[in-house]
Structures are given as structure tokens and as C-alpha cells.
Design goal:
The protein is of the alpha+beta class and about 700 residues long. The protein has four domains: about 350 residues, DD-peptidase/beta-lactamase superfamily (Beta-lactamase); about 90 residues, Calycin beta-barrel core domain (Lipocalin), CATH 2.40.128.20; about 100 residues; about 80 residues, Jelly Rolls (Sandwich).
Length: about 700
């Protein structure tokens, strides 16, 4: 299946269960005792620590308290190879924190009587239809609390570079029209980007305004947030922090532009973001009833594991968690939202009762570290007010006890939308979890849990009312210099044994190891430089009849039947194979891929042309015998090309890096993408021959 990005829950799993070793910080130099650091000095250290953990290029932070920015700062570099200062006015993408803005914008419409949270979405979007009649039950509230039942992400072309194209949002209704739901609307909450893109369309329909215009009219304008923008705004894009594909890369990418503004496309400074969070502490932006609605325990409306209220995932409306640890353990409600794009990462933590908010933004890194950094800044600010936050969450001791023998029957395969694992339970009360090739051992205790040897994490097997069996995880971890985090959620679902027709198995095994190449990604898509345009079929490590958590339905269809609240069934979907003119194609969540085995070989002629055909699909070539030759391409407008090596890593890109001349790698691929009719002119120069030995 399509390569998947790191999610917060996967990080938590490794942090809590594997006790992931943390990156070593710079060695401390012994020094004479000094006066206690100021909050601002501590914040700088915290931000630098988060940057180090995540390998970020730069970080920016701010603390808002009692109506004003108390401090703001930054660390790192704006540009790795250019002497330009990073400032507090540098802009960053806030990623999915855009969802919090969208939820607030929706609540403004609720206050105006133009939207009802519990009205069906079809009231505002009469053209919204799906191939599943249950779509009529989806309400506006379900969009905001992630319980709509939508699969998650309807298609590609959402993450672009230097491109304000909005097709990903404009075409959403069309793409959803062919989809089914993963569960009954309202059954449980699972993270869904498409739900918020749909919410954006509701806002536009109910307000009669473009999303960006409505955002500025109702939120950024009244709050004076002049440094909060979207890709639809006309602004100097050199203000955006430079983004890099990897910490080692020295060439910056063009500005990242998300075509799903209401879901993840907003830019801001840390000061603006913290001020927005601060506005959600009082009446300046929303009524108390609206703020209370956003901060309510929306996650408990549907299926949810017990004893999980302070987990990193506990949804409100627009919030990832409305009970962020460690504040929750000290009787303080903290609201948190994180955001990750390919380039940018962000964390926002708000404490309404103490009139505080902190924001941390980064280029590179991971939002989890940004959230923990923001939390630590707030812990220090509360401490200065005489409010102590306990940052530990040790598990209670539980004595060993004989295990009920019926639990051995729960051995078997378990899966989520991104991984599968094997659980073996022996009669003597030992549970072995093999996940991604790593085996961990837990033993049964008197409270019905299985614990690791150090009593740092526990697992339970829970049968829910829907008849499905889930693996529940509780774990706690703390990162030195930041703070702690709790993971308390269902992470895997038991996979029933599949009685699969041998012909079905044979058809999918025939695809094993094949490479498939995306045809429908726009030439400006960040997926090209990120090597996200490759897909593969892998049955290895999955139980018979499955591909990861997807069931093999027939010779050409694999569909997910995972129903895990939180994040475990995030971005589920269907993979469909088809053969056209002897060439096999895969469609995965709306993106079409072509079997690489059917590619033509790049022309070795001194000059050649490549024209994008009327359907607009990208055109791929294997490099073949052209390896070692120097290729020069005249690139038309609205188009670009990329070169990949045998490991599917990009070595050149006209759009991302301005490359027009490149030496072709052995065993690699070429791709040309652009508007229909775009014509590339290509010249080849033969590889230099080594001089014969004398």
C-alpha cells in the first residue's frame, strides 16, 4: 500500500512500549552556580531542546498570558546556505491546528444562527452525496469531533509547493461521491482530514464567503492577527521559514502550500498562534457556551476505551485532547492541538482557567515535540503563579495472579490501518506482542492487565459492544528537558480469520513486490520530492487473506474493515486493481497508480519530445540504457519533471530545485507532469567514455 507518514500515535507507541531512546543533547559544561533562569531564558532552552529532538531547522515560540504576549523567541536558521536572520515575524505553516480555526469559525456561525451543530451536513451542502446512504446521518458536529465515519483522506494533491491550486477542496464532493463509510456516523471518533475539508465547505456555504475571507472577517481581523494567512492571501512568501526534505538536505523547497486550508493550510507566527489560543480563554472571540462546546468531552459520545481521558488523543471540537497530560493529573484543564505537514510542525496548548496559551512552530521536526515544549513553557508559567503541575504518571502496582485460561483464545493477528501484529498468549499468563518485527513480553496481573517487566506500560484485551476485540495500551514517557505524555487508547483490532479463495490470494501474491507509480499527482505536489508517488503491494507480515489491515475481497479489491477510535483506523480505504490495454493500475483512496513493469524506456535519441496527454496523467519512463547519460530538458509552463534512483529517492527536480540538466542514475525512473498539452523538449548527451589504457 501507499507509503504512510509518521503519525503521533505511532510515535507514542514507540515511546511508551519500546521506550525509545532519546537523542542526546549537547554536553553540559560545568559552571559556577548562577541565579535561577527567567521564564524567557528557560523557554529558549526548551525550544532548543525540542528542535534537537526533532532535528528541526528552526523553531519559533511564544507565551500569551492575561491578554498579551509575555515573551516570544526563536532558534535555528532561516536558510542553511544564506545569511538571513530568523525573526519572530517569520511565518510557519501551522498544519492541522488550522482545524481549531475552522472549529472556531463554525462556532461563530452557530452563534449567528446560521449553522446548527446537530443538523445534517446535507442541509448546507445539498450536493453532498456518497455511495453509502448513511452519509445523510452525518452532522456538522460529527465533522468537528471526527465521528463522521468518513474514511479519512479522499485523495492526493493536497500538499503542494508554491501553488495556490484548490482542486483538492473544490473536488472533494466528487471524490467522496464514490466512497463508503468506515462506520455508522457517530459510532466513534477517529481522526479525519476530510471531515474538516467538508467543514470548510459548510462554512463557505453558510457564510456565502470564501473560507479565507471569512477567516479574516471573523477571527484574524477582530483579533488583530496580521500575521495569520492562508495560501489564498497575497503576501511575500519569502517570509515563510525555509523547509527541507531532510535534516541533511541543504536545498530548500519552494514554499509549502496546502490546498486544504480549513484542514491544514494556515500560516502564522508563534505570537499570532498563541494570541489566537489566548482568545479562546475569554469572550473576545466566542461566547462561553461556544468555548465550552469546543472543550467538551466529544470523544465520549461514541465508543471509547475506559480510563483514557488524559490520553494524547481525547477529542473536543477542533482539539486533539481536552484533557492534556500532565495538567489533567493536577486538576487543570489544558486544550491541545498539533499540526504536521511535510515541512512544518506545530503545537498549541491553551489553559483557559489560567488565561494562558503557548505556541511552538518549527520547520522540520515533529509536532509532538512542539506540543511538549509548549506544555513545558506553561508548566513553568504556572509554577511562577504558585500552581504546581505534577509531571509523573507511574502505574499502580499490581500483583501477579493466575490468568483466566479463556484469554488464550484471544491469541491471533491484530491490525490497524497502518500496521499488523501477532499476539500470543500462553497458559502461564505471558503475552508476547510482535509488532513490525519487534517482540515485547508482558505478564498477567491481578487487575486483569498485562504489564512489562519494568511496570511502565500495560496492555488489556477488551471486547467492545460492537463484538470486536481491541488491544488497549496505557503507557507513560517523559522526554528530558520537555515533559511527559500519556498514551491510553485502543491501538489494534483483532482480525478475524479470513477464508480467502485461493484464486484471490494468487492474484494479490502476483502483485507482491511490484512498484506502482502515481499518475494523478499535480506537478507541484510535494509528494514528488518526498518520494510519496510510489506504492507497493506487500502481503508479507500480514495474516492470510489480508494486506495489512485490509481484507482481500476479490482478485482486484482490498478493503479495510478496521474500526478503531482515536487514530487506529485513520485514513482507511480501498485498493482497487484494474487492467486497461494490458497495463495494470491501482486506485488507492482516489489516487491512480500504474504498474512500473509496463513503463516505456526513456529515449536515448539525441533529441526527443514528451507531451502530457488530454487526461493530464503524469508520464513515467524507466531510465534503462540511458543511465549515465546527461539529460537536458526544456520545461514548459505549468509543468515539471523529476528523476529517481533505483531506491526511489529523488535525485533531481525542475520544480522543486530548478534542475534542468541531470546525469541519469542506473535503474531509476523519469516522470514528466503538467497541464494537458505541456510539451517537454529533451536532449541526451552520451556518457563520457574512459580513455583506453596505454
Amino acid at each position: 500500500m501507499k507509503q504512510l507518514r509518521i503519525t503521533a500515535w505511532a510515535l507514542l507507541l514507540s515511546l511508551m512500549l519500546s521506550l525509545l531512546p532519546v537523542t542526546a543533547l549537547a554536553e553540559e559544561v560545568p559552571a559556577a552556580p548562577e541565579a535561577p533562569l527567567t521564564q524567557e531564558a528557560m523557554a529558549q532552552t526548551i525550544a532548543e531542546t525540542a528542535m534537537t529532538y526533532g532535528g528541526a531547522t528552526s523553531v519559533q515560540y511564544a507565551l500569551w498570558q492575561d491578554g498579551r504576549i509575555v515573551y516570544a523567541g526563536h532558534a535555528g536558521v532561516y536558510f542553511k546556505s544564506e545569511n538571513r536572520l530568523l525573526t519572530d515575524d517569520t511565518l510557519y505553516g501551522v498544519g492541522s491546528i488550522s482545524k481549531t480555526y475552522t472549529a472556531a469559525a463554525m462556532m461563530k456561525l452557530v452563534e449567528q444562527g446560521r449553522v446548527s451543530l446537530d443538523a445534517p451536513v446535507t442541509r448546507y451542502l445539498p450536493n453532498f452525496k456518497m455511495a453509502d446512504e448513511r452519509y445523510k446521518q452525518i452532522t456538522v458536529r460529527m465533522l468537528l469531533n471526527h465521528s463522521s465515519g468518513l474514511m479519512g483522506a479522499a485523495g492526493g494533491n493536497s500538499f503542494l509547493l508554491g501553488d495556490g491550486d484548490y482542486d483538492a477542496t473544490d473536488d472533494l464532493l466528487e471524490r467522496l461521491s464514490t466512497q463508503t463509510l468506515q462506520a455508522d456516523p457517530g459510532a466513534y471518533s477517529v481522526y479525519s482530514n476530510d471531515s474538516y475539508s467538508l467543514a470548510q465547505l459548510v462554512i463557505e456555504a453558510a457564510s456565502g464567503m470564501d473560507y479565507t475571507a471569512y477567516l479574516h472577517k471573523t477571527i484574524t481581523g477582530p483579533l488583530g492577527l496580521k500575521n495569520t494567512l492562508t495560501p489564498a492571501d497575497d503576501f511575500d512568501q519569502s517570509r515563510l521559514a525555509k523547509g527541507y526534505l531532510t535534516p541533511a538536505e541543504v536545498r530548500p523547497l519552494p514554499p509549502e502550500t496546502l490546498a486544504i486550508a480549513g484542514c491544514g493550510g494556515i500560516y502564522a507566527t508563534a505570537s499570532d498562534l498563541a494570541s489566537f489560543g489566548g482568545a479562546l480563554c475569554g469572550d473576545k472571540l466566542l461566547r462561553k457556551s461556544s468555548r465550552d462546546a469546543m472543550a467538551a468531552d466529544e470523544f465520549l459520545r461514541g465508543m471509547w476505551p475506559e480510563n483514557s481521558t488524559d490520553s494524547a488523543v481525547a477529542y473536543g471540537l477542533g482539539w486533539d485532547s481536552v484533557h492534556m497530560f500532565p495538567f489533567s493529573r493536577s486538576g487543570v484543564q489544558a486544550l491541545v492541538k498539533g499540526g504536521d505537514t511535510i515541512v512544518y510542525h506545530a503545537g498549541l496548548v491553551v489553559i483557559p482557567e489560567h488565561n494562558m496559551a503557548a505556541a511552538v512552530l518549527s520547520s522540520g521536526g515533529i509536532s509532538t515535540y512542539d506540543q511538549l515544549a509548549a506544555a513545558k513553557m506553561l508548566i513553568n508559567a504556572l509554577d511562577a503563579k504558585g500552581v504546581t503541575i505534577t509531571e509523573t504518571a507511574d502505574l499502580d502496582e499490581a500483583a501477579s495472579a493466575p490468568m483466566p485460561q479463556e484469554l488464550t483464545a484471544l491469541s491471533g493477528w491484530y491490525g490497524s490501518s497502518v500496521q499488523v501484529g501477532k499476539i500470543d498468549i500462553t497458559a502461564d499468563g505471558v503475552l508476547k506482542l510482535n509488532l513490525s518485527g519487534t517482540e515485547q513480553t508482558f505478564t498477567y496481573r491481578a487487575d486483569g492487565s498485562f504489564r512489562d517487566e519494568g511496570n511502565t506500560a500495560l496492555l488489556r484485551l477488551v471486547e467492545e459492544d460492537n463484538g470486536r476485540v481491541y488491544l488497549y495500551q496505557y503507557g507513560y514517557g517523559i522526554l528530558e528537558g520537555l515533559t511527559g505524555m500519556v498514551a491510553a487508547e485502543y491501538i489494534l483490532q483483532r482480525l478475524p480469520e479470513a477464508e480467502t479463495d485461493p484464486a484471490v490470494l494468487a492474484a494479490w501474491r502476483e502483485r507482491e513486490g511490484k512498484v506502482y507509480l502515481a499518475l494523478t499527482e499535480r506537478y507541484t505536489s510535494v509528494m514528488y520530492p518526498a518520494s510519496g508517488v510510489f506504492a507497493s503491494v506487500s502481503l508479507e507480515g500480514s495474516p492470510e487473506g489480508y494486506m495489512m489491515g485490509s481484507r482481500l475481497i476479490d482478485e482486484n479489491t482490498a478493503a479495510s474493515d478496521i474500526q478503531i477510535p482515536g487514530t487506529g483506523s485513520r485514513d482507511s480505504g480501498t485498493a482497487s486493481a484494474m487492467v486497461i490495454d494490458g497495463v495494470e493500475y491501482l486506485e488507492i483512496n482516489g489516487t491512480i497508480y500504474q504498474d512500473a513493469a509496463a513503463l516505456p524506456t526513456a529515449s536515448a535519441a539525441e533529441s526527443s519530445l514528451c507531451t502530457i496527454q488530454p487526461e493530464g496523467y503524469a508520464r513515467w519512463y524507466s531510465i534503462g540504457s540511458c543511465a549515465g547519460q546527461t539529460m537536458t530538458v526544456t520545461v514548459p509552463e505549468d509543468a515539471g519533471f523529476c528523476v529517481y534512483d533505483a531506491n526511489m529517492l529523488m535525485t533531481a527536480s525542475s520544480y522543486a530545485y530548478g534542475d534542468t540538466t541531470v546525469t541519469l542514475p542506473e535503474g531509476g525512473y523519469l516522470v514528466y507532469a503538467g497541464a494537458p498539452g505541456a510539451r517537454f523538449e529533451i536532449t541526451m548527451s552520451p556518457a563520457r567514455q574512459s580513455a583506453p589504457e596505454k
